[in-house]
Each structure stands twice: as C-alpha cells, then as structure tokens.
C-alpha cells in the first residue's frame, strides 16, 4: 500500500472536478446544454470513480481520516444531485471507520466542522445539500444501531451549523446591522 500514491490520486481527482471550468451551473443555458450534450458531466464520472476507489481502500481508509474530509466535503458541495447522492455516504464510512478504530469519530467531526465553515464562506452549500446530508447519513446509520445515536447527534449538530452559516452568508450583504449581528451571535 502506497499512501502517498493514493493521497495524490484523491487530491488530483477532487481538484479536477472542482475546477471552475467544469462548474456547469455557472454557464449560460445554451453553453450548459452544448457541453452536456457533447461531453456529459465529467464531474459525476470522476466523483463516482472517487467513491469506488474509496471503498477499495479497505483497512487503509483510516490513513485518510481526517486528511481527506475537506476534499471530499468540497466535492460533495458541488450542486449536482447525483454526485452528491453518490459521495455523501463516504462521510458515514469515514465515521464508521474511525469509530471502529477508536470508539469515536472526533477527528472526523472536528475536521468537517472546520472545513464546512470555510466552504460555506466561500459560497458553497445550499438548503438542498443540508437536506441530502441529513437524510443520507441518517439512512446509512440506521443499518448500524451501535453508532446510530452518535451519528444522529452529529447530523443534528452539522445541520444547525449549516443553517446558521447559510443565514450568515445571506445577510452579509444586508444593510440592516441588527440582522448581521443577530446572525453572527447565532453562529458563535
């Protein structure tokens, strides 16, 4: 097992699908259709490959926690529904992996909270992501009763944080200082 090789693979793949020139939702409708018809959405293909390779790591997954949490989060925040549905379950697998090794998933939890703040501040994330995140992780956790309550608490924490981060981002351009201050206090 070559850790550096796998690490390079994951970082390169995430860098590829998050590059600006592949963010189809930022293009005009005509350009979007033209690219979609000619090439399809390459982000989805690479995202599925990342997912498949993640599950092939076996016992070596623990080597990538928490280091790959940020890049995987960045990938899951791309506003493409099928990509999100395919890759959000990686988070549950990371939690389960860390839980099986240490009896908790604090490293994962701390990293995702830290990175989520940065990503939402950068303009990523939306209400739909929050709903998918909650439903997918809750559904995954139902199959593992021993960790279900911990995952449920974690999902609730992240959902509240994401709500507050999205509110904060929305009011940053608001003229009303009270609204901005209220969101800041809630976030803190």
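^ structure tokens above, recovered residues below v
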């Amino acid at each position: 097992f070559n850790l550096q090789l796998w690490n390079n693979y994951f970082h390169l793949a995430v860098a590829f699908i998050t590059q600006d020139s592949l963010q189809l939702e930022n293009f005009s409708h005509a350009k979007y259709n033209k690219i979609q018809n000619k090439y399809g959405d390459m982000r989805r293909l690479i995202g599925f490959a990342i997912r498949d390779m993640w599950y092939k790591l076996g016992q070596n997954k623990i080597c990538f926690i928490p280091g790959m949490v940020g890049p995987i989060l960045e990938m899951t925040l791309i506003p493409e529904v099928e990509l999100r549905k395919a890759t959000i379950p990686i988070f549950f697998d990371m939690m389960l992996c860390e839980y099986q090794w240490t009896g908790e998933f604090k490293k994962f939890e701390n990293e995702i909270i830290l990175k989520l703040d940065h990503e939402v501040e950068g303009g990523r994330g939306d209400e739909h992501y929050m709903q998918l995140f909650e439903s997918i992780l809750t559904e995954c956790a139902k199959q593992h009763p021993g960790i279900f309550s911990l995952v449920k608490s974690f999902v609730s924490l992240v959902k509240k944080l994401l709500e507050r981060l999205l509110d904060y981002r929305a009011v940053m351009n608001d003229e009303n200082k009270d609204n901005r201050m209220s969101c800041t206090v809630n976030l803190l």
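DSSP finds ten helices and no strands in the chain.
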